[in-house]
Design brief:
single chain, alpha+beta, Jelly Rolls, ten-stranded mixed beta sheet, 16 strands, binds fe (ii) ion, metal-binding, IPNS-like_sf, oxidoreductase
């Protein structure tokens, strides 16, 4: 099975027309657009992932972001540690390798499920915390009045990177714009009002959180960079990485290696969309592992004298902390709805992070 690539252009063209109200009336929607929206929701449901092409976000935008992050991660440890804020629970700035713990390493229930999986679909077993660095950069406005005040921490900008703020913000806003289009299309596809999801995302604690993995030190096949886990946010998005290695699990339990075409973005479902759809769309399980394709990419990068840091350009889009997570619209009538009782998104995030020992960190396992 191959993930389809959804071109967002036709949808964006229609939704940009001020006189166009057909998007609010699902039944009047152009049949072709309607079937595109249905493909979005069906793919998210069956695979937990989606490849999209957004005309507002080019391969060059992704390159500019990755180039800067490679340059940053290549700096010596002593330099990067200046951007570390452990007393702020790593909510901003850099998280060094060896701090994030994969859920499959600590969650006993998950461990049992894994051992029951057919051998060929079982994830790689992490031997400890993830050997990847991460940088946390908040994107977008936050509410002035909230029950879930983020710590009052200034964004961290490393010295010698004058382009930092612009590059981070520009990539972050582009990623949020792409997620919003997908969230509208998915809502239509799921038979909900088009703004069912995005109205809950306003002022959410969205986080740009690129990772950096040093393939020079950890480039051996089977090394686990991110152990099997789901994301606790709403939807996660990234551009194409220069080194492959992401595996996802489809709804039917099959494991699949993801190949992101040049110029495309990859979206993955998180736990919050599972909650809002009463499990109709479940959080996608995934891992990042050094595979034989990663090793081939390392060989090529060495020949071309390119960086051996594997950078992901990840953004975690969240439901606003004060909004209530609960099955929306017709999903409230689902027989599984009772498994998803109402809970404030902020409280939900705190509960999830307590399990994985990263309380205060608005990211993912
Ligand atoms: Fe993840």
């Amino acid at each position: 099975m191959k993930l389809p690539v959804i071109d967002l252009s036709p949808y964006l063209e229609i939704s940009a027309k001020p006189s166009e109200n057909s998007l609010n009336l699902g039944h009047q929607l152009d049949p072709q657009l309607k079937s595109l929206c249905a493909e979005v929701s069906r793919t998210l449901r069956e695979t937990g992932a989606l490849l999209v092409k957004d005309p507002r976000c080019s391969a060059e935008d992704n390159d500019r972001f990755i180039d800067m992050m490679e340059k940053y991660f290549e700096r010596p440890q002593e330099f990067k540690r200046l951007q570390e804020r452990p007393h702020l629970h790593y909510q901003v700035g850099v998280t060094p390798e060896g701090v994030e713990v994969p859920r499959s390493f600590v969650d006993e229930e998950m461990k049992e499920k894994l051992s029951a999986m057919p051998k060929e679909f079982q994830p790689s077993t992490p031997m400890g915390p993830d050997p990847k660095w991460r940088y946390m950069w908040r994107v977008g406005p936050r509410p002035s009045n909230t029950r879930f005040q983020e710590l009052n921490s200034e964004p961290v900008i490393p010295e010698g990177f004058p382009e930092w703020k612009d590059t981070m913000d520009s990539w972050g806003y582009k990623m949020i714009a792409a997620i919003e289009a997908v969230a509208e299309m998915a809502a239509i596809g799921f038979g909900l009002p088009k703004d069912a999801f995005i109205s809950l995302m306003k002022q959410g604690p969205h986080l740009l959180a690129p990772t950096g993995s040093d393939l020079r030190r950890y480039g051996q096949e089977s090394t686990v960079f991110a152990g099997y886990h789901y994301d606790l946010n709403f939807l996660t998005i990234h551009g194409r990485s220069r080194f492959p290695g992401l595996n996802i699990w489809l709804r039917n339990g099959q494991k699949m290696e993801v190949k992101v075409p040049v110029g495309c973005l990859l979206i993955q479902t998180g736990k919050q969309i599972e909650w809002l759809t009463a499990g109709d769309c479940i959080a996608g399980m995934h891992e990042v592992v050094v595979t034989n394709r990663t090793v081939d990419a390392i060989t090529l990068a060495l020949q071309e004298n390119r960086s051996l840091w594997r950078v992901s350009s990840t953004l975690f889009a969240h439901i606003a902390s004060d909004a209530v997570l609960q099955p929306l619209g017709h999903f409230a009538e689902s027989p599984l709805a009772s498994k998803y009782p109402p809970i404030c998104a902020g409280e939900f995030v705190e509960q999830e992070l307590a399990v994985i020992n990263l309380k205060g960190n608005k990211g993912e396992p």
